[in-house]
C-alpha cells in the first residue's frame, strides 16, 4: 500500500466550501496535495477529491465557492431534521444507530433517486469518469449499515459512487448502485479516516468532526491511526471558521465566508502540515 493518504470528509455545501478553502490555502503555501498515493472522499469530499484528482487546481475549487458557482439547494425542513435525529440518536450502539438511520431513510417520503443524480452531476464539473485508481469513495449500505469504499475497479460509474456517498438520509433517498441501496458515507463517520489504515502519512480534512450518534469522531479515528504508527495531520474548522460556517450546513449564502475562513486557517497551518507531508520524500 502507498505511503501517503489524503482524506476529505463530508460536510454539506458549507463544509465543502470550507474544505476548498483549506485545500487552496495549503496548495498555495507549497503543500503538494497531488503527491497523495490515495484520496479517500466522503460526500462533499468525494466531489472535490474527484475534481482535484482530475486536474482541477485547488485555487479554482476555492474561487468557484467564492462565486457561488458550486452551490446546491438542499431544502431541509424541521420535520426532516427531527426525524434524522430521532433515528441516529435512538441507540447507543453504533451498528444499531446506523441501521435505524438506514431504515428511516428507506421509509422516508423523499423525491425520486434521479433528483440526487441531477443535483450532483453539475458538481462534478465535467469529470465524467474515474480520474484514476487512487480515488476511494465511501458510502453506507442503508439496509445493513455496512461501510463500503468504491473505486475505479468497483464496476460503478463515478457519478453513482458520488451519489451513493452523498445521499443524505431523510433529505435525499438512498440511491440504488450495484443492486444495493446506499446512503451518505458520513452516516457512521464524517471523514472515514480509518480507511487510510496502512498508510504512513495521512492528511485528513474534516469539515464536521463527528457524525450524529454514537460513532467515533474524526479525532478518535486519527488517534487510532496514530497509535498504529501513522503520522496523522487532522484539520477541522477552528473557532473563526465555525462562526463563518454557522449552524446550517446547507446555507448557500454561507459558502463564500466559509471558503475564506478555510483558506485563512490553512495558510496559518501550512508550515506544520508541510513538514509532515514532505517527510516521505
**What is the alpha-carbon Rg in Å?**
17 Å
- The pLDDT mean sits at 93
User: What is the tally of beta strands?
Assistant: 8
Beta content comes to 5-15%
| Helical/strand content category | alpha/beta
Helix content: 40-55%
Oligomer: single chain
Largest sheet, described in full?
8 strands, mixed
Q: Which spans have pLDDT < 50 for at least 5 consecutive residues? A: none
Shape: globular
Report the order of strands and helices: EHEHHHHHEEHEEEHEHH
- Total of DSSP H or I helical runs spanning 4+ residues: 10
Kindly, what is the distance between the CA atoms of the first and last residues, rounded to a whole number of angstroms? Answer: 16 Å
Give a quick rundown of the structure:
The protein contains ten helices and eight strands. The protein starts with a strand and ends with a helix.
Spell out the blueprint of helices and strands:
Layout: E1 4-8, H1 12-28, E2 38-42, H2 44-53, H3 58-66, H4 78-88, H5 94-107, H6 113-120, E3 135-141, E4 147-150, H7 158-166, E5 175-177, E6 180-184, E7 201-205, H8 218-227, E8 231-235, H9 239-245, H10 255-277
Parallel strand pairs: 1-2, 1-7, 2-3, 7-8
Antiparallel strand pairs: 3-4, 3-6, 5-6
Amino acid at each position: 500500500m502507498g505511503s501517503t493518504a489524503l482524506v476529505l470528509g463530508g460536510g454539506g455545501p458549507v463544509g465543502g466550501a470550507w474544505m476548498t478553502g483549506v485545500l487552496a490555502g495549503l496548495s498555495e503555501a507549497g503543500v503538494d496535495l497531488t503527491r497523495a498515493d490515495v484520496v479517500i472522499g466522503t460526500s462533499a469530499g468525494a466531489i472535490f477529491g474527484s475534481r482535484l484528482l482530475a486536474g482541477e487546481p485547488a485555487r479554482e475549487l476555492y474561487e468557484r465557492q467564492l462565486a457561488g458557482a458550486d452551490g446546491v439547494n438542499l431544502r431541509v425542513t424541521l420535520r426532516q431534521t427531527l426525524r434524522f435525529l430521532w433515528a441516529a440518536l435512538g441507540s447507543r450502539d453504533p451498528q444499531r444507530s446506523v441501521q435505524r438511520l438506514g431504515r428511516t431513510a428507506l421509509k422516508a417520503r423523499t423525491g425520486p433517486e434521479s433528483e440526487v443524480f441531477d443535483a450532483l452531476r453539475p458538481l462534478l464539473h465535467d469529470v465524467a469518469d474515474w480520474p484514476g485508481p487512487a480515488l476511494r469513495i465511501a458510502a453506507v449500505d442503508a439496509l445493513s449499515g455496512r461501510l463500503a469504499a468504491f473505486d475505479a475497479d468497483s464496476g460503478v460509474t463515478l457519478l453513482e459512487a458520488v451519489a451513493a456517498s452523498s445521499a443524505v438520509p431523510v433529505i435525499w433517498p438512498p440511491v440504488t448502485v450495484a443492486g444495493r441501496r446506499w446512503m451518505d458515507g458520513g452516516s457512521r463517520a464524517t471523514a472515514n479516516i480509518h480507511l487510510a489504515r496502512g498508510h504512513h502519512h495521512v492528511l485528513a480534512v474534516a469539515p464536521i468532526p463527528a457524525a450524529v450518534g454514537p460513532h467515533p469522531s474524526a479525532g478518535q479515528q486519527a488517534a487510532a491511526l496514530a497509535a498504529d504508527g501513522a503520522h496523522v495531520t487532522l484539520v477541522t474548522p477552528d473557532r473563526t471558521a465555525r462562526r463563518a460556517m454557522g449552524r446550517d450546513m446547507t446555507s448557500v449564502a454561507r459558502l463564500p465566508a466559509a471558503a475564506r475562513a478555510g483558506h485563512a486557517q490553512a495558510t496559518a497551518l501550512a508550515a506544520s502540515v508541510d513538514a509532515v507531508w514532505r517527510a516521505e520524500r
